[in-house]
Amino acid sequence: MAREVSEICMDSVLAEMVASYCNRFYANKPDLAARRIEAIGYQVGHQLSERYTMERPRFSDHLEAIKFICKDFWSEIFKKQIDNLKTNHRGTFVLQDNKFRWLARMSVDPSADNGSNEDSSATVAESKAAQAMSMHLYFPCGIIRGALSNLGIPCAVSADMSNLPACSFVVRIKA
């Protein structure tokens, strides 16, 4: 029987990890908190990739490995495939999830940060809310980077959440 983790448990672990690194361990160092969260995701992705490719032959090229991430790997983690894959055929891939599960359940109330109704304070509150939400994307970026690293593909991964709950992950293969 396959070992699985309840989705709500994973949501809670991710939320607590981000809160701990951002508010306790590295409260005044958001860049360091982001690097630590991404490093944890890297380890998780590396180990999951090892588990999910144990019975498979090695991938012959980058595109084949990226397709594995979009279909099989993503399905194992999120119970659905990536919705869209784009590439420039020069080492950059964009993986789009139109309803990224870890963002779809999040809600941010910008008015909670500040009782004022002024436009400038609302903009600042929205910016802080977006920054807090973006911290949750370092973990899946790390998962993708760790999985691809395990497949022999060094890369950098970033995320774009400009159209919530959709999320795009940009994978840049290192030469």
UniProtKB/TrEMBL annotation:
GO biological process: endoplasmic reticulum to Golgi vesicle-mediated transport
Superkingdom assignment: Eukaryota
GO CC field: cis-Golgi network; trans-Golgi network; TRAPP complex
Family, similarity comment: Belongs to the TRAPP small subunits family. BET3 subfamily.
Protein name (database record): Trafficking protein particle complex subunit 6B
